Amino acid sequence: MSEMRPVILVVDDLPENVQVLGELLSINYEIYFALDGSQALEHAGKVKPDLILLDVMMPVMNGYEVCRSLKESEELRDIPVIFITALDQPEHESQGLELGAVDYITKPFNSKLVLLRVHNHLMMKFQHDQLLARAIELEDAMAKIKILSGIIPICSSCKKIRDDAGYWQQVEEYISKYSEAVFSHGICNDCAKKLYPDYYDSIKRQPIE
Predict the structure, then answer these.
(1) What is the DSSP annotation of 145-197?
(2) How far is it, in rounded angstroms, from Cα 185 to Cα 1?
(3) Per-residue model confidence as pLDDT tens digits over 150-192
(4) CA-to-CA distance for 161 and 156, rounded, in angstroms?
(5) Which of 45, 88, 182, 201, CA to CA, is 20 to 30 A from 107?
(6) What is the C-alpha separation between 128 and 121, in angstroms, rounded?
(7) What is the pTM of this model?
(8) For the stretch 191-206, what's the b/e string if a residue is b when 16 or more beta carbons lie within 10 angstroms of its beta carbon?
């Protein structure tokens, strides 16, 4: 993963639970805390955590409602959520996973298990983010290629190219605009002979070493 410490948001209405998780995770991660659902959504929007550890049983807005709100947000939906709760029935876990959580840990939890699951899900998010970034780069590159792969109107005399707005541009100006190509300039033999005959003749008379 990157050199920056991943950010984890811990959400639990009991300060002692927050403290335990904070002490466990703060060695390797940057930790933010929220003590209720509305605070969790506010912090998530501000710090954009890499992972959220979310309790279920909280007053006013429970963890399921928080998770639902996160997944409905275009900005926050890709943040992985791990429920960590005392609710240990299969239907509770099913509900959490159906809402889009990536994992479900029951209390009292095993510290080593929490660290392993947190690490694994952060690695998966990091890999997902890398693939997404590469896909965006590829899409941008393909868009540039498509611009130059169609029929390009070029003047048969001066070789200028007509752009989409109907203006005529030099070839190098047009290609530089629609690609990352960089030009260096020289002169071919035919043009040298036509434009600079004396220079051309002197070059031709020089012996080849």
Answers:
(1) HHHHHS---B-TTT--EE-TTS-EE-HHHHHHHHS---------HHHHHHH-H
(2) 44
(3) 666 777 777 777 776 777 777 777 677 766 666 676 777 777 7
(4) 10
(5) 45
(6) 10
(7) 0.66
(8) ebeeeeeeebeeeeee
Instruction: State which residues form the domain around 126.
Output: 7-133
Q: CA 118 to CA 96: how far, in whole Å?
A: 17
> Distance (Å, rounded) from C-alpha 52 to C-alpha 82?
6
* Distance of alpha carbon 191 from alpha carbon 197, whole angstroms: 9
Alpha carbon separation from 106 to 45, 54, 62, 109, 201 (Å, rounded): 26, 11, 16, 6, 89
Same domain for 42 and 90: yes
Give the residue carrying structure tokens 């260096």.
184
How many domains does the chain contain in total? 2
Q: How far is the C-alpha of 65 from the C-alpha of 12, rounded, in Å?
A: 14
